[in-house]
Amino acid sequence: MDYLGLDRQKVDNVAKSLNELLAAYHLHYQKLRNFHWNLKSNHFFVLHEKFEEFYNDANEKIDDIAERILTLRVQPLSQLSDYLKVSRIKEVSGDMDDTSMVNEVLKDFTALIALGREVLEVAGDANDEGTIDLIGGYVGDLEKNSWMLASYLEKHLPKK
Q1: Considering all CA atoms of the chain, what is the largest pairwise distance in Å, rounded to the nearest integer?
Q2: Is residue 1 in a domain?
Q3: How many whole angstroms separate alpha carbon 66 and alpha carbon 75?
Q4: Is the Cβ–Cβ distance between 68 and 131 less than 8 Å?
Q5: Is residue 2 predicted with pLDDT exceeding 90?
Q6: Tens digits of per-residue pLDDT, 30-62?
Q7: Contact 6/126 with Cβ under 8 angstroms?
Q8: What region does 75 belong to: left with phi over 0, alpha with psi -120 to 50, or beta?
């Protein structure tokens, strides 16, 4: 840790939080792939493209988070079984209607925002500006995408 100048115990707490976020992003990513592949809707072209945009973004964030964990000199989780145990985001069936899919993505975004804020709190306690810089941007992106999905639901999809 000498090159970072951070407290090892606090850094381990940051890495633990980042691993929880990493696991959640993996489940979120796969859920988006599932929805992209299995969508049947009058809104197919809009949602199919949007789900692909979201899963490509999640894929980049997965790599960034894992590399940040490695920068902190901790091994990132890398087993699917570990992701399933740790993630607050859970698997769902691909046999859902478009409204349910969009609501599920919005629910995931809410969970990812909460996890991101937890990482920011722990990273702040550790004076870990690198993690704060990385994750702060993610939270802002998720908040904006949540607003857009909520607006889409209000405008295009029937309420249940």
Answers
A1: 56
A2: no
A3: 8
A4: yes
A5: no
A6: 999 999 999 999 989 999 999 999 999 999 999
A7: yes
A8: beta
**Which CATH number fits the domain that encloses residue 81?**
1.20.1260.10
Confidence of residue 94 (pLDDT cuts 50, 70, 90): confident
The two tokens of residue 151 are 């607006």
Q: Is residue 158 scored above 70 in pLDDT? A: no
CA distances from 141 to 10, 40, 104 (A): 26, 27, 17
In a domain, 46, yes or no: yes
Query: How many structural domains compose the chain?
Result: 1
Domain that holds residue 91: 8-156
Contact 144, 108 (CB under 8 A): no
Whether residue 3 lies inside any domain: the answer is no
b/e sequence 73-97, b meaning 16+ C-beta within 10 Å: eeebbeeeeebeebbebeebeeebe
0.70 cut: is pTM over it? yes
* Residue 135, domain member (yes or no): yes
Instruction: Dig out the tokens for 125 from the structure.
Output: 């306690």
- Tokens 């115990």 label which residue? 9
